[in-house]
């Protein structure tokens, strides 16, 4: 089975290296291949060199020859990239590796794949993993979700390595929402820590944030056990507690009232906006996500955000 990774940012590069380690043939597509061709390093994952067995290409049609395509661009670019494939992707497995909710359709990556490439089989690779850790081959466990059990099983075996353990699921919506929503809560946690609030505040936000994640996911058809697994609770714990996380660092900067480099990918900011609109449409209470949207757009301060959350009517847990 041949594999192509679409997007040579931090995560796409790390995945290509991981797959190459297991001996599979892998092509890495970038929209600009100049740095990758000359240095064999991605500007987004400096210090990590691609092995010889990873072929770099800027030709999407060549990447489309692979049996399995891993889509590793940011969520808001997924539909743009998919639109650039000008041949049908019949019989291919398309594995979305991005975490977020598309602002145009208010859907996750699997729905975007199904809508734009109905001839292919959509799947999701998600869970707690920093690109740098995957590239170093550190032990990691992720969720591979695909509604088609046989294809899911095949993908699980294609993409797992001795260091990267993949758990299989058929709950695609639960897997993608866990990955998308934890980024929003990580921004909230970063903002509180940045503002000088303590670990107890962070624990409260993580727990009540997890309640929001589960509420929305179950409303949209997810299974609660998926949210308790790697793609929900697992990734929430990682992202809310590590300064390796860009979402958490973005929150820290908000809390410290410091600028943040706008070229860094922060999926949670756009996802907070998407969740706010989605929650309004379906009538769900998502106060932390709504607050993160206001914080990210600068329409509320961290102090006022916390005050508003604390002054909500007391209720049963
Ligand atoms: N980094 C991590 O640790 C992890 C990331 N993820 C997820 O993976 C996804 C990608 O993140 P990550 O790799 O870190 O992001 P990066 O910012 O490191 O890289 C993004 C990549 O996407 C490319 N890209 C952006 N827009 C477009 C577009 N319109 N068309 C084509 N290519 C585009 C960029 O190209 P260019 O360089 O030319 O700008 C870049 O190569 C996100 O959804 C993230 O949540 C998941 C798990 C771990
Ligand atoms: O998704 C990730 C870890 O699982 C990466 O998190 P950040 O995008 O916040 O860096």
From TrEMBL:
* Residue sites binding sn-glycerol 3-phosphate per the record: 99, 127, 129, 182, 235, 245-247
* Residues that hold substrate according to the record: 99, 246-247
Glycerol-3-phosphate dehydrogenase NAD-dependent N-terminal domain spans which residues? 2-150
Q: Which GO terms describe its molecular function?
A: glycerol-3-phosphate dehydrogenase (NAD+) activity; glycerol-3-phosphate dehydrogenase (NADP+) activity; NAD binding
Task: Give any single GO term for biological process.
Answer: glycerol-3-phosphate catabolic process
The family line of this record is:
Belongs to the NAD-dependent glycerol-3-phosphate dehydrogenase family.
Q: Describe its function.
A: Catalyzes the reduction of the glycolytic intermediate dihydroxyacetone phosphate (DHAP) to sn-glycerol 3-phosphate (G3P), the key precursor for phospholipid synthesis.
User: What does the record give as the active site?
Assistant: 182 (proton acceptor)
Protein name from the UniProt record: Glycerol-3-phosphate dehydrogenase [NAD(P)+]
Q: Which UniProt keywords apply?
A: Cytoplasm, Lipid biosynthesis, Lipid metabolism, NAD, NADP, Nucleotide-binding, Oxidoreductase, Phospholipid biosynthesis, Phospholipid metabolism
Query: GO CC: one term?
Result: cytosol
Instruction: Kindly tell me the pathway this chain contributes to.
Output: Membrane lipid metabolism; glycerophospholipid metabolism
- Domain Glycerol-3-phosphate dehydrogenase NAD-dependent C-terminal: residue ranges: 171-306
UniProt-listed Enzyme Commission number(s): 1.1.1.94
Residues annotated to bind NADPH: 11, 31, 99, 131, 246, 267
Q: Where does NAD(+) bind?
A: 7-12, 131, 246
SUPFAM superfamilies documented for this protein: 6-phosphogluconate dehydrogenase C-terminal domain-like, NAD(P)-binding Rossmann-fold domains
Record-linked InterPro entries: 6-PGluconate_DH-like_C_sf, 6PGD_dom2, G3P_DH_NAD-dep, G3P_DH_NAD-dep_C, G3P_DH_NAD-dep_N, NAD(P)-bd_dom_sf
From the UniProt record, list the reaction(s) this protein catalyses.
Answer: sn-glycerol 3-phosphate + NADP(+) = dihydroxyacetone phosphate + NADPH + H(+); sn-glycerol 3-phosphate + NAD(+) = dihydroxyacetone phosphate + NADH + H(+)
What's the superkingdom here? Bacteria
List localization entries: Cytoplasm
Instruction: Report the PANTHER family cross-referenced here.
Output: GLYCEROL-3-PHOSPHATE DEHYDROGENASE (PTHR11728), GLYCEROL-3-PHOSPHATE DEHYDROGENASE [NAD(+)] 2, CHLOROPLASTIC (PTHR11728:SF1)
Taxonomic lineage of the native organism = Bacteria, Pseudomonadati, Pseudomonadota, Alphaproteobacteria, Rhodobacterales
């Amino acid at each position: 089975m041949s594999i192509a990774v679409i997007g040579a940012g931090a995560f796409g590069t790390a995945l290509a290296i991981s797959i190459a380690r297991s001996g599979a043939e892998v092509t890495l597509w970038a929209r600009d291949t100049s740095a990758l061709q000359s240095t064999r390093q991605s500007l987004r994952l400096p210090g990590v060199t691609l092995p010889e067995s990873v072929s770099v290409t800027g030709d999407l049609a060549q990447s489309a020859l692979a049996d399995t395509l891993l889509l590793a661009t940011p969520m808001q670019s997924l539909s743009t990239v998919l639109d650039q494939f000008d041949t049908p992707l019949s019989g291919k497995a398309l594995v979305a590796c991005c975490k977020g909710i598309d602002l145009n359709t208010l859907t996750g990556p699997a729905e975007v794949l199904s809508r734009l490439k109905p001839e292919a089989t959509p799947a999701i690779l998600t869970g707690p993993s920093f690109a740098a850790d995957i590239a170093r081959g550190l032990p990691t466990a992720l969720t591979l979700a695909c509604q088609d059990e046989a294809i899911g099983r095949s993908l699980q075996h294609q993409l797992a390595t001795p260091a990267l353990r993949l758990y299989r699921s058929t709950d695609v919506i639960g897997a993608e929402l866990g990955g998308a929503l934890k980024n929003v809560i990580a921004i909230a946690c970063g903002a509180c820590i940045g503002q000088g609030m303590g670990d107890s505040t962070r624990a409260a936000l993580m727990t009540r944030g997890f309640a929001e994640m589960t509420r929305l996911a179950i409303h949209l058809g997810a299974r609660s056990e998926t949210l308790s697994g790697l793609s929900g609770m697992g990734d929430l714990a990682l992202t809310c507690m590590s300064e390796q996380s860009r979402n958490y660092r973005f929150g820290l900067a908000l809390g410290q009232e410091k600028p943040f480099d706008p070229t860094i990918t922060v999926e949670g900011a756009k996802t907070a906006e998407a969740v706010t609109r989605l929650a309004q449409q379906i009538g769900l209470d998502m106060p932390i996500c709504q607050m993160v949207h206001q914080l990210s757009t600068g329409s509320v301060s961290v102090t006022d955000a916390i005050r508003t959350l604390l002054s909500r009517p007391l209720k049963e847990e």
